[in-house]
Structures are given as C-alpha cells and as structure tokens.
Amino acid sequence: MIVRQEIRALLEQPPIGEEVTVMGWVRAWRGNRFMVLNDGSGPETLQVVVDGDRFGEETLRAIGFHACVGVTGTLTESQGSGQSVEVIATDITIFGGNDLSKYPLQPKKQSMEFLRENAQFRMRTSTFSSVFRVRHGVAYAVNKYFHDRGYYYLHTPIITGNDAEGAGEMFRVSVLDPVNPPKTEAGTIDYDQDFFGKPTNLTVSGQLQAEIGALALGKVYTFGPTFRAENSNTSRHLAEFWMIEPEIAFADLENDMDLAEDFVKYLINYCLENYGGDLEFLDARIREVEKNMKAADRRPMGLVDTLKFVVENDFARVTYTEALDILLRSKAYKKGKFEFPLSWGADLQAEHERYLVEKHFERPVIVRDYPKDIKAFYMRQNDDGKTVAAMDVLFPYIGEVIGGSQREEREDKLRQRMQEMNVHADELDWYLQLRTFGGCPHAGFGLGFERIVQFITGMGNIRDVIPFPRAPRLAQF
RNA sequence: GCCUCAGUAGCUCAGUUGGUUAGAGCGGCGGACUGUUAAUCCGUAGGUCAAAGGUUCGAGCCCUUUCUGAGGCGCCA
Fold first, then answer.
1. Which of A72, A217, A263, A450 makes a 20 to 30 Å CA pair with A393?
2. pLDDT value at position A164?
C-alpha cells in the first residue's frame, strides 16, 4: 500500500521535525539541489532539499520539470526566504521520469492557446490546476446550495425527442446509415426505423422537463451537459457546456430574481472562503498579464476585489424599458458611440449590455420584462400585452450569465403564444397538460456553469475553464 | 456565419523600401556549481519562414486561394 501526505494538509499544520512522505510532480529543479513539488492538493508547493552526495547520479538525472517523484524526509524550517518549511530528503523514488527533449511544456509562461493544444498536460500548470480546483468548488457549491435549501437534483434527459425547445441549433442523434439512410415512400428519411423511432437530438435545455419536477417536488434543479450546434466562435460559447436550471413552484419573477442573485453570490462566496489560495494566484496572474496592457484595457479592480464587490453589493435591477431609457439618455449614445440602433422592441446588443454593467451601474445588472417578440414562447405574458416576465443577469467581462423567466401557467395564453410563434402544440402535449392539470405559478432560470467559472477565475476564454472544450472544429481529447 | 489581425527554431517573438549564408530570449543537449526562488555561468545543436500557386533577375517580405489561431460581432448560457 502506498502511504503519503498531501502537501496542502502538510502546510496547514506543518509537523516540524517529523518524517514525512510526499508524492507529486516537479515544478522546478534548481541548482542540482532544490526540487519544488506540487501534488495537486492545492496551489501550494513544497521545496525539497536534495543533498547530491546521498543520492546516485541516476536519481539526480531523472529529476526534472514535471517528472513524478516520491520523497521521504524530515520537514524543517526553511533556510531560504521563499518558503517557510522544506523537506530534507532521505529517500527519493522516481515514479515517472520526463524526457525533456521531447516534453512539450516548459517551465515558463506558456500561451493559453499552446496549452489548450496540449490539454493532456495543461492541468499540471499552476494556472490550470487552480482553475480546475475552483471549477470543482463551484460545482460542489451548486449542489450544496440547493440541497441545503430543500431542492431536489433532477436528472433530465441528454437525448431528447423535442425539437420545439427553440433554444438553438441541435446536434442530431441517429444510428441510421449516414450514406444511405432508409427512405419513406415520400422520399424523406424514415426515422421510424431509427433507434428511437423518431428524430432525436442532444438536449439544449432541461427546463421543460424540470417544470414537470417543480410541479410535483416543489423545488428542483438540473445540472448537466447541454449542447448547442451553433457556429459560435467567441470566447464565451461552447458547443458542449454545463448548465444549472433551478425550477420552482409557487414563484413569480421577483422570487426568480432573488434566487438568481442569492445563488450566484453564494457560489462566489464559497470560492472566496474555500479556494482563496487559488484565487489569489489567479489574481496575481491577471495582474502579470495586464502589466503590458494599456491602462484602459486593464480591469478596474483585481480579481479577488471584483468578487468581493459582487458579493457585497446589490445587483442593479431595471426593466428593459428603463434600460433602454438609460441608454438613450447616455453620453455614449448621444456621441454616436453605439454601432447598433436603440429602439423599443429590438434586443439589447452586447455593447449596450456592457455599457449598463461596466459604465452606468458598475455592478451586475438584472434586466427584466423584455418585449415578448424577442423571447421564448413559454415566458409569462405581462398585463401590458407587450412584455413577458423574463430576466437576464448581466455580468462584467462575460455578459449574460443567467437567463430566466416566470413560466406561462395559463393554458389559453400559452396555446395562443405557441400558435403565434409557430411552436407545434401536438409535440408538446405533455408540457401543456402541466397547465391543464394542477398547474401553478412557477419560475426558473438557466445559469451557464462555465460562464460563472470564467468570471470567478478571471479566465478570458471559456475554453480554458472546461477540461476538454467542444467548439466548432474542436473535438480533440 | 461576418469583420479585423496574425502564422518565421520546441515556446515567445524580431526580421528595414523585395537583395548574399535567417536572428534573439527562453527551453533542449553537454559541462561547471553545496542555499536556490523564472538560479547562475560556459559551450552547442536546432528552420519545408502554415500550404499551394503566381509576380520578379531575385520573395520570409508583394498578389491569389486554402488551412490554422486570436480578438470583435451575431446566436446564447
């Protein structure tokens, strides 16, 4: 059996003078004497002092960048200034040597793009190991938040038979021969012969099914992979991403917004409390990157300060109509700084959202009550006949992080809207029945998991906060 | 999908109005080094200048097409 101590635990309560055994990957090997080890348990490294006389030439030669080693030795106070404690090695095991003439990574700053192409090794870097520890922390906090508040985790299907969800282009799922699929007499593809006997796709949202759960269990949430076949080439879109979708019965848009704000703040706060070391490291990394940037391109606040600010301040809340008014009265608009026109009924463009968040309110903003024609069929119609009870939560840097709404629980209104928007009622009979039989006011939202991880870690590209990104023309690993 | 910029050594990049044999730092390899902190010092190897085609006496540099990447926009979470 292998027995070892984890570096993170060791540094929390250093047993000075005792013998310890640590195992990990070499981050640096200096002066043929100092080995810096990290084992992934945290961002902290442990310095190992290697007396060349005690170990053979073969062992010394095998120690190198990202080699995997085990060390037994005495934990002592460090003579050097860069660390408080260190291990004086008495025994060294080389688990995996590393041929540096062939290894792609180097002990220096590497570009995010290069590391993305070497995803089999990128988690060994300090940046990515911190990112993925924080990602885990956010995922755990999601489940903890809902569990502690009486929500039930509902697993909605990944393969779906609805093509009426209207949330974007879908990936087809089929086992038919792609070259010569069976045809009907009319000449179309005969999906009756496909695995499910009908066309099926990967899910773009678990919301419609989550509503089934909410109208029985009261409060549910989904947290699973979601797929969009959009040809989106941006730093905040993925073809495969994880989405969190709470759905609650006996709730209106006010309840929905309160939940969204409280939930997001909880996730951020959880990371501040439990992953402070990783966040400090990422904060310092961003400052380093921004050193060479123009002042205007730098963040107004550091990463940790930004996170604290978001947690400590109320989100701004405005209606779509009020937001439009703010934009129309803005200096940016009057000086013609906006590329896209502003008119009631048109969706807010990224430049408008960024103005509201980064210039006007300087904090996260919730925009509610959007024009009904730019929103989905299932959103509850407001009494003004023009707007729906929808809300978007907008964040600095990443834009929309949450989209949600109160759902239309009135069957006649829902049917009328489906007809207007050309959504086929016969395919969503089960969804309509939730209104016919024992319906109630209910609401929910979708939170883009990678987007909130992106915000918390400060990573510029969403592809760098998911271990194996899927995007147009990108399905490696 | 659209717009802009980029692709030169393993990595990050320089390369002048088109002109001889393609440059640096880091990394690698060889050596020195018993308190280093991106260790340092000496030496050394390493190139289909993204690909194809074109202009020219001559192309890393100019033109065309394709591929790849980044940033922005759209779609959205």
1. A217
2. 58
- How far is Cα A23 from Cα A40, in angstroms, rounded to an integer? 10
Tens of pLDDT, residue by residue over A11-65, are: 999 999 999 999 999 999 998 899 999 999 999 999 999 998 888 888 888 999 9
Task: Give, in order, the Cα–Cα distances in Å from A442 to each of A11, A166, A214, A350, A424.
Answer: 48, 20, 8, 29, 22
Does residue A162 register a pLDDT over 90? no
Between CA A3 and C1' B41 the distance (Å) reads 41
Measured from the CB, is A476 under 7 Å from any atom of strand B?
A: no
Task: Reduce the secondary structure of A423-436 to three states and give it as a string.
Answer: CCHHHHHHHHHHHH
CATH code of A7-103, in short, is 2.40.50.140
Nucleotide nearest to A235 (CA to C1'): B71
- Residue A41's nearest CA partner among A248, A278, A352 is A278
Domain boundaries, given as residue ranges, for chain A: 7-103, 126-168+204-315+363-464
Q: How far is the CA of A101 from the C1' of B28 (A)?
A: 5
Per-residue model confidence as pLDDT tens digits over A190-217: 999 999 999 999 999 999 999 999 999 9
**Within window 200-259 on A, which residues have Cβ closer than 7 Å to strand B?**
205, 228, 230-239, 241, 243
In the CATH hierarchy, which top-level class contains the domain A126-168+204-315+363-464? alpha beta
| Residue A294: per-residue pLDDT | 72
Distance separating alpha carbons of residues A26 and A69, to the nearest angstrom: 7
Distance in Å, residue A90 CA to nucleotide B42 C1': 32
For all residues of chain A together, what is the average pLDDT? 93
Q: Which of residues 347-366 of A touch strand B (CB under 7 A)?
A: 347, 349-351, 354
At residue A112, what are phi and psi to the nearest 5 degrees?
A: -60, -35
Report residue A86 as tokens.
Answer: 């260190």
- Are the CB atoms for A243 and A450 separated by under 8 Å? no
A371, pLDDT greater than 80: yes
- For residue A141, what are its two tokens? 């906090």
Residues of A from 250 to 309 whose C-beta is within 7 A of strand B: which are they? none
The integer distance in angstroms from the CA atom of A235 to the C1' atom of B70 is 10
Cβ(A163)–Cβ(A125) under 8 Å?
no
Nucleic strand B near CB of residue A80 (< 7 Å) = yes
